[in-house]
């Protein structure tokens, strides 16, 4: 997205993930983004301080990335009964729509969600609602570093039914490297990853 903010001589560019849930997409022609407040961040402070109003115009460029849910039912593609989502911090944002779409399609979803603290945990209300709505098919496992429950090699989940599981991973680069290595050590290569920046995972 392109931003022309008051007091700035240059247009600012920021990338965001679409975080609509399934019902949002079905019932409206709108896309939702989630902008986390970063102290000192020009755009994030502008958006979160209430300066952005309905009918304001923000320039949007074409989408990039290939991080999306794939289960089209195409006979040439393998479909999976279980979807494992590994989210580090705000990396959960694009997993919102992936998670809900998979659940709506009758999949079992395991969300392994890592955060520094409970205060930094995004989408709390959504997670509660999801657990209530899909109590038999949605499993949430939290890892909170400040509570002494950081995701480590010792407590890393053992993935069941590996051949029948689809795996998505998003978060800080070091987090993604760690999770990918742990999944690989279990013989899991089917991992969808998206990252921003110059460092490969």
UniProtKB/TrEMBL annotation:
Keyword vocabulary terms for this entry: 2Fe-2S, FAD, Flavoprotein, Iron, Iron-sulfur, Metal-binding, Oxidoreductase
Entry's transmembrane regions: none
Flavoprotein pyridine nucleotide cytochrome reductase-like FAD-binding domain mapped to chain residues: 8-69
A molecular-function term among this protein's GO annotations: metal ion binding
Cofactor(s), names only, from the UniProt record: FAD
UniProt cross-references to Pfam families, sorted A to Z: FAD_binding_6 (PF00970), NAD_binding_1 (PF00175)
Protein name, as recorded: Unnamed protein product
InterPro entries (UniProt xref): Cbr1-like_FAD-bd_dom, FNR_nucleotide-bd, MRET, OxRdtase_FAD/NAD-bd, Riboflavin_synthase-like_b-brl
Domain Oxidoreductase FAD/NAD(P)-binding, chain residue ranges per copy: 86-155
Source organism (scientific name): Candida boidinii
Coiled coil segments of this chain: none
Domain of life: Eukaryota
